């Protein structure tokens, strides 16, 4: 496949020049190197390349064979999991704003750390609990000595930023640690008891499918990830004591929104919608603290990106540059890869599905189906394939893992790794819906100009099992129209 084509070369550096009088020394100019970025669309036009996600020892992998490369980059957590020997880079790869078009005009939007407590905003976080609820005070969990050190470090950092303060609250919740993707650990507060008595905020989170439907026509994309987004929203002062958490170092309470609170996503979604309301469904989609900007041309994208960054500056909202991506023709977003050609499953996100061990209890079946079901729009007859496994979720059903269930389990994994690229819908053109019905379930496919936009399916309800064929076919049509 030819490289060095327009749009592929990201960076090129000249070879070093030998300095006069210093035959054994070289200048500080780095050796010649090139980074080639090849899009899926470009690769699909090449005759001598195989596209797709391949299973390597039952793990999904996208493979590039190139005898001219000197280094390959791999996630540390992935390498440790599969016992792959790696060597750390001598110098970290730094992504400065200076060289990024438009972004270089807004260095204040990308600080290394949040500058302090957030300003007063139109939305502030509340914790409204059921009437008659008495303060809840839990005992702290036992933790390892090393974790005590991490707790102390976290407390000192949060105190320094003004995100927490010492507390005398009658409420108290224990802390625990969760593993992050990069292998580090994050301190969290176990607010489950508080969440159980909290009145749930009904502010709607957008449907993922609806967000993707807005992207039709987009050719240039940028993705912005806010830095510790929840910490950029204040808690109403009278509600702060309810966030108190207990440690061996004392009792503290959050002055900003914390992870683990049940209504946090809804409140932050409300804030982001207010900030970007005039741009939503035009060139911006937002899901909690993820912002995706899409444009038809580079000229449009320059204007759109500038407008979004200006909004962030006006509202004193800050982004994490290392997690942002700009000026792309395809971009990972919410577990998918988005491009002008459509949307596809993000291979890096389905590894959890592919690594899922054979379920031994009902809880593991439910977890697998929930995770795989996130991508059901890519899988034709998803409900039909999953039927044997979903029957295990019925109350009182004995757990018997048969050969047929194992085959269905393997088939869902296979379908995910071979899923089609789905076309983004053009709302100005007509659609075609194909429906099918049988005693095993209902299925339909939405198409436009011969290209698949989405699959949908469901199992029959108990009262539908005895329907005659023509009623089942009508039920499939109704199901398709309700989606």
TrEMBL record:
<keyword id="KW-0511">Multifunctional enzyme</keyword>
<keyword id="KW-0540">Nuclease</keyword>
<dbReference type="InterPro" id="IPR001969">
    <property type="entry name" value="Aspartic_peptidase_AS"/>
</dbReference>
<dbReference type="InterPro" id="IPR041577">
    <property type="entry name" value="RT_RNaseH_2"/>
</dbReference>
<dbReference type="Pfam" id="PF17919">
    <property type="entry name" value="RT_RNaseH_2"/>
</dbReference>
<dbReference type="GO" id="GO:0003723">
    <property type="term" value="F:RNA binding"/>
</dbReference>
<keyword id="KW-0548">Nucleotidyltransferase</keyword>
<dbReference type="Pfam" id="PF08284">
    <property type="entry name" value="RVP_2"/>
</dbReference>
<protein>
    <recommendedName>
        <fullName>Reverse transcriptase domain-containing protein</fullName>
    </recommendedName>
</protein>
<dbReference type="Pfam" id="PF00078">
    <property type="entry name" value="RVT_1"/>
</dbReference>
<feature type="domain" description="Reverse transcriptase">
    <location>
        <begin position="159"/>
        <end position="338"/>
    </location>
</feature>
<keyword id="KW-0645">Protease</keyword>
<keyword id="KW-0255">Endonuclease</keyword>
<dbReference type="InterPro" id="IPR000477">
    <property type="entry name" value="RT_dom"/>
</dbReference>
<keyword id="KW-0694">RNA-binding</keyword>
<keyword id="KW-0229">DNA integration</keyword>
<feature type="compositionally biased region" description="Low complexity">
    <location>
        <begin position="1"/>
        <end position="27"/>
    </location>
</feature>
<keyword id="KW-0460">Magnesium</keyword>
<keyword id="KW-0808">Transferase</keyword>
<feature type="region of interest" description="Disordered">
    <location>
        <begin position="1"/>
        <end position="30"/>
    </location>
</feature>
<dbReference type="InterPro" id="IPR043502">
    <property type="entry name" value="DNA/RNA_pol_sf"/>
</dbReference>
<dbReference type="InterPro" id="IPR021109">
    <property type="entry name" value="Peptidase_aspartic_dom_sf"/>
</dbReference>
<dbReference type="GO" id="GO:0003964">
    <property type="term" value="F:RNA-directed DNA polymerase activity"/>
</dbReference>
<dbReference type="InterPro" id="IPR043128">
    <property type="entry name" value="Rev_trsase/Diguanyl_cyclase"/>
</dbReference>
<dbReference type="InterPro" id="IPR050951">
    <property type="entry name" value="Retrovirus_Pol_polyprotein"/>
</dbReference>
<keyword id="KW-0695">RNA-directed DNA polymerase</keyword>
<keyword id="KW-0378">Hydrolase</keyword>
<dbReference type="GO" id="GO:0004519">
    <property type="term" value="F:endonuclease activity"/>
</dbReference>
<dbReference type="GO" id="GO:0015074">
    <property type="term" value="P:DNA integration"/>
</dbReference>
<dbReference type="GO" id="GO:0006508">
    <property type="term" value="P:proteolysis"/>
</dbReference>
<dbReference type="GO" id="GO:0004190">
    <property type="term" value="F:aspartic-type endopeptidase activity"/>
</dbReference>
